[in-house]
From TrEMBL:
InterPro entries: Phage_capsid, Phage_capsid-like_C. Residues 74-95 are annotated as: Disordered. The keyword Coiled coil applies. Residues 209-486 form the Phage capsid-like C-terminal domain. It is found in: Virion. This is HK97 family phage major capsid protein. SUPFAM superfamilies: Major capsid protein gp5 (SSF56563). The lineage of its organism: Bacteria, Bacillati, Actinomycetota, Actinomycetes, Pseudonocardiales. Residues 40-67 form a coiled coil. It comes from the Bacteria.
Length: 489
């Protein structure tokens, strides 16, 4: 009998025994019932022995299959896990086996470990809880876009991203991170057992001494646009990196031509350029009293939420107006002083004619995907100036759809200038294809617990603890030609 037949027979024995018991009621079993009950007991004991042996055989076979799959991966087969094509959708092992992840991460040739790490990371994303479908799709797209076979930097390229996803998405890591910080916030010292789990996983991440937050709350991977007053992440190109500088390459348009038969083809070489986006560090520090850490039941979750909110608010400003000195290059800064900045025709006056000029000067190749960003006060001023002719340039498409200015979607950006200040530069509107503005997140959002803070005057403990968080990212325009900026001077 196979496993299914053995289990089915045991169920039948239990059913028959229950029937005998019900028939006898409160009376003793008669001779026939007693004989049958005894026979069922004997048969059950034998079946359970056979079942245990069959289950052990099945478990041994499963271990052999798993071991053989790993052996196949080490031998460099086409499919490193010994699974059929589409292993990413059918990963059968434990994706959170950190020992296997470490071996894959540090193999000499990336192709031997890269595909296994990719499969594990995709399986981890599929099964992790607490992550929205949109965020899962975002992370899956990131993993599928990476080149695991040409990953020259050990642990700092595609393999590093996959290892980070696996290490921070397991239930054990989530529990350990939460337990370590909850205990630390109450007592000043993290839970020892939880700390051991974090330290093991930390070797696979790039947290630089801190502990990466679990995947479901990692703002460098999870999409979170709710309540944001900046559209930059939503409309721009967003990438994830594990290097200090992210290099992009752009080129001018290639001019093709029709040539006569047998004639020399024209030289259509474009102008090439490189944009290096540097990863700048942002920090957040949240001091709190010992009493709050002890008495506040949801303090850990609220701290994570507050730090993520601080990150969003900071980036909403810096991706628009960041100077590039120790912070990202904002889109306003990138366009300031370039030929793509248009000054108002009349000093200190926002006129509809200037808005039309911005629209007209945007090259056609960027026109269909162009969007506006500006402060809501500027949009309000334009609508008031339109008067009876408002419908000629402004359209409200209904609930859930962005308004349109001259046929292009309108986005609110609170960091843009909202007031026209006399005799000053007032960069009030930008129109462009924001796929040419890149935001690059360095993977990981790390936190560290500071068990005691000291008073700056007396250098004695102040009865406070602190949570220090840090992350890195950068931004810049990779093609200024794709934008036009209106400056009311």
């Amino acid at each position: 009998m196979n496993l299914e037949e053995l289990r089915a027979r045991l169920t039948a024995i239990e059913t028959e025994r229950r029937s005998i018991h019900t028939a006898a009621g409160d009376n003793p079993l008669d001779e026939a019932q007693h004989t049958r009950w005894d026979a069922l007991d004997t048969e059950e004991a034998e079946l359970r022995e056979h079942l245990a042996a069959a289950e052990e055989t099945e478990q041994r076979a499963a271990r052999v299959r798993e071991s053989r799959a790993r052996y196949g991966a080490r031998m460099g087969t086409d499919d490193p896990l010994g699974e059929p094509e589409g292993i990413e959708q059918n990963f059968r092992g434990n994706p959170w086996d950190l020992g296997a992840v470490t071996r894959s991460l540090h193999r000499e040739t990336p192709e031997r470990g890269g595909q296994e790490l990719r499969a594990r990371a995709l399986a981890a994303v599929e099964h992790v809880r607490g992550v929205s479908d949109a965020s899962k799709q975002h992370i899956t797209g990131l993993l599928e876009s990476l080149d695991f076979e040409d990953d020259g930097a050990e642990g700092r390229g595609a393999r590093g991203i996959a290892a980070h996803v696996v290490a921070t998405s397991s239930k054990e890591y989530m529990r350990a991170w939460s337990k370590a910080f909850k205990t630390g916030m109450r007592t000043g010292q993290p839970d020892v057992e939880a700390l051991a789990v974090l330290q093991r996983a930390a070797s696979l991440t790039d947290a630089a001494g801190g502990y990466a937050v679990p995947l479901p709350v990692d703002p460098t991977l999870i999409l979170n646009y709710d309540g944001s007053v900046s559209p930059m992440r939503r409309i721009s190109t967003v990438r994830t990196a594990v290097t200090d500088t992210y290099r992009t390459v752009n080129a001018g348009a290639v001019t093709a031509s029709y040539d006569a038969e047998g004639s020399e083809v024209s030289d259509d070489t474009p102008t090439w350029g490189a944009i290096d986006i540097k990863m700048e560090m942002a920090r957040g520090f949240l001091p709190y009293s010992i009493e709050i850490g002890v008495d506040y039941p949801n303090f850990t979750a609220d701290v994570a939420m507050l730090l993520a909110d601080a990150k969003t608010n900071l980036e909403n400003t810096k991706f628009v107006t960041g100077t590039g000195n120790g912070e990202p290059v904002g889109i306003v800064t990138a366009l300031t002083g370039t030929p793509y900045e248009i000054n108002s025709a009349t000093a200190d006056t926002l006129a509809l004619a200037d808005v039309y000029k911005v629209d007209e000067e945007l090259p056609e190749r960027f026109y269909d995907n162009a969007q506006w960003i500006g402060h809501k006060k500027i949009y309000s001023a334009l609508r008031q100036a339109g008067g009876a002719n408002l419908d000629d340039f402004w359209a409200d498409l209904g609930q859930g759809q962005p308004s349109q200015l001259l046929g292009h979607p309108v986005n609110n950006a609170s960091a843009m200038d909202g007031v026209i200040n006399a005799t000053q530069d007032n960069r009030v509107l930008i129109l462009g294809d924001f796929r040419n503005f890149w935001i690059v997140d360095r993977l990981g959002f790390a936190t560290e617990l500071i068990p005691h803070l000291f008073h700056t005057t007396t250098n004695r403990p102040s009865g406070q603890r602190g949570v220090f968080a840090y992350w890195r990212n950068g931004s810049d325009s990779v093609n200024d030609r794709a934008f036009r900026q209106l400056n009311v001077t």
